[in-house]
Amino acid sequence: MAHPEWVTALISQNGNAYEEGLSEGWNPIQRYWRDRSEANRQALRELLTPASIRWQYEHGVPDTSLVSPDGSALDAWYIQRPEVDEIQLDLFGDNASNVALYPAFQTYFRTHRPRLLAIWGRNDPFFLPAGAEAFRRDIPDA
Known about the structure:
mainly alpha; single chain; about 50% helix; about 5% strand
């Protein structure tokens, strides 16, 4: 946003800039944004379990037998390394600063109208397709 003249185009893959793009899956994370209690932080650990990580890969897939376990197994292995879970929980908390920038992003889009391609998975459990469609409000040719 600081140097719009440097931007030729934007490609967004499930990259949200509109609150309507946030699913109910964000509810526990948003609760943590509002109240940084240890209880709310601990509640987010469920998102870091191997089963939850696997669910994120398979959610909305008609035939889950076609989803290789490699990606989710590797993600689960990485998240179980010492302190990585704490880093991920910190990132969940810090995402509030990104959402707080949504109005500034939208102003940038309306003012500078960069070329934009929004690519979205219709079954993404966290970022809804409405988030992709919302870009057109500010960039009609998106």
